[in-house]
Write a structure and sequence with these properties.
Elements lengths: L7 E5 L3 H12 L3 E5 L7 H5 L8 E2 L12 H10 L2 H11 L3 E3 L4 E4 L4 H15 L2 E3 L4 E6 L4 E5 L4 E4 L1 E4 L14 H7 L5 E7 L3 E2 L3 H5 L4 E10 L2 E2 L4 E7 L3 E3 L1 H15 L6 E6 L6 H13 L16 H4 L9 H9 L1 E5 L1 E2 L7 E6 L17 E3 L13 H18 L1
Parallel strand pairs: 1-2, 1-10, 2-6, 10-21
Antiparallel strand pairs: 3-5, 4-5, 7-8, 8-9, 11-20, 12-16, 12-19, 13-14, 13-15, 13-17, 15-16, 17-18
Bound molecules: flavin-adenine dinucleotide.
Flavin-adenine dinucleotide (FAD) binds next to helix 1, helix 2, helix 6 and helix 12.
Length: 402
């Protein structure tokens, strides 16, 4: 009997999702090529977690993702969840450690370790990698796919896995071109919006406090309505506005509200003294006044000295109640976000209803599979984005090879 002909698959995009899809498909005997537009595989993985790569989280479920994605996310993690992702990497040789908040990192705290192990597997399986290979169009003739790349060259495949990522940090590779490739097959694209992104404000406090970083709480508002609970974390004042983990964590609804029609007015409330209630803070300030503390030192030890400059009008004994109220709830009007170059994640992408949540095959085009950030699934900070990339990539690879 002649040997069974292996399936020819091209994976568009050599990021986290594409690499794992390629490995899963090649392990099942498929002949796989990864087409990657950058000169290196996994540039975003390497930059993840500031080079440490927060690859996963102890608690993985749909509540950490956009609501629309709940069904697909649950189904995906039921089949390839935390344990399966960890075993996949453990088999490659990756050791991990888990921080107190549940975030999982390589034991080395280096994304490079993880990428080295993925590259070793790619080589072992004989996966062809074409770098500097920007896929300009993908067309189906009914019998096969033809992928047009630069310089008039083409790749041919029986099946295509589209793992071209979102639109954030285009210098790391994903420039939104994956959305156009999907759109050409009739896919609806939920308008992409930069999320997990620093926010801009004209507020004079930010200019005066530029460079100051404190631990605080932040809460976003759209058209004066709170759209999230208070989130605690770092708050960094910059010359353009606000950054830090608390701001990134509340930025998603703000950016979506500002960028998607009908656009809304956005603001952020900051609690600058999260360790005291407003009453306890007022009592503490009154105690300081009673001790004869000079006005300029009223917030000393509660906030860095520079804050005295922006609080000057409240640093008088008969305004301590007002001072406490401002410190617990200072509102900043948001004029915009820092945009795609500074946004860690992308909201939006290929509409979930158009992708089969078991096989990751397109409902618009047989033989086309979609995974990772190109699909309208976005998670919170904490390893959820990469968890989605690994899991959806793996399952798409298995389906495409089948
Ligand atoms: C600075 C930063 C830090 C982050 N830190 C974390 C973290 O610690 N934990 C976490 O979970 N998530 C983190 N993320 C998010 C996470 O890295 C991404 O969500 C995830 O890598 C997406 O994987 P992906 O494979 O779908 O897309 P990508 O990693 O973007 O990969 C897509 C690939 O496709 C290629 N490509 C695009 N278009 C084409 C084309 N037309 N032809 C050929 N190739 C193409 C791109 O060059 C790219 O390599 C971070 C993101 C950033 C920007």
């Amino acid at each position: 009997m002649p040997p069974m002909k292996s399936r020819k698959i091209v994976v568009v995009g050599g990021g986290g999702a594409g690499i794992v899809a390629a490995i899963a498909a090649a392990r099942l005997g498929a002949e796989v090529t990864v087409a990657e537009r950058m000169s290196l595989l996994g540039k975003k993985v390497l930059a993840s977690g500031a080079g440490r790569c927060n690859l996963l989280n102890e608690t993985l479920n749909a509540s950490f993702y956009n609501e629309e994605a709940a069904g697909m996310v649950n189904e995906t993690f039921r089949r390839f969840g935390k344990d399966e992702i960890l075993s996949f990497f453990r088999e490659l040789g990756l050791w991990t450690h888990t921080e107190e908040d549940g975030r999982i990192f390589p034991l080395t705290d280096k994304a490079l370790t993880l990428m080295d192990l993925l590259r070793a597997e790619i080589e072992k399986l004989g996966i062809a990698v074409q770098l500097n290979c920007h896929v300009r169009s993908v067309k189906s003739s009914g019998r096969e796919f033809v992928l047009e790349i630069e310089n008039g060259k083409a790749l041919r495949a029986e099946r295509v896995i589209l793992a071209a990522g979102g639109q954030s940090y285009p210098n790391l590779g994903s420039d939104g071109s994956g959305f156009e490739l999907a759109r050409a097959f009739g896919h609806a694209i939920v308008p992409p919006v930069p999320i997990t992104v620093p926010l801009m404000t004209q507020d004079v406090w930010c200019r005066v406090l530029e460079g100051q970083r404190i631990r605080g709480r932040a809460r976003p508002f759209l058209d004066s309505k709170a759209v999230m609970p208070w989130i605690e974390g770092d708050i960094l004042f910059t010359n353009y506005g606000l950054s830090g983990t608390a701001i990134l964590d509340i930025s998603d609804p703000v950016s979506v509200g500002l960028n998607r029609a009908p656009a809304k007015k956005a603001s952020v409330a900051l609690d600058l003294v999260p360790f005291l209630s407003e009453n306890d803070l007022a009592r503490e300030l009154e105690r300081r006044v009673a001790r004869g503390m000079k006005d300029a030192y009223l917030v000393a030890g509660l906030l860095p000295p520079k804050f005295a400059q922006v609080l000057r009008e409240f640093l008088v004994p008969d305004k301590v109640r007002r001072l406490a109220a401002v410190l617990k709830n200072r509102v900043f009007f948001v004029s915009g976000t820092r945009g795609w170059d500074a946004a860690e994640f992308t909201a939006g992408g290929v509409a979930i209803s158009e992708v089969d949540s078991r096989t990751f095959e397109s409902r618009k085009q047989g033989g086309l599979y979609l995974c990772g950030e190109v699909v309208d699934v976005n998670g919170r900070r904490g390893g959820y984005q990469l968890a989605w990339a690994w899991a959806s990539g793996y399952l798409a690879g298995v389906s495409a090879a089948g």
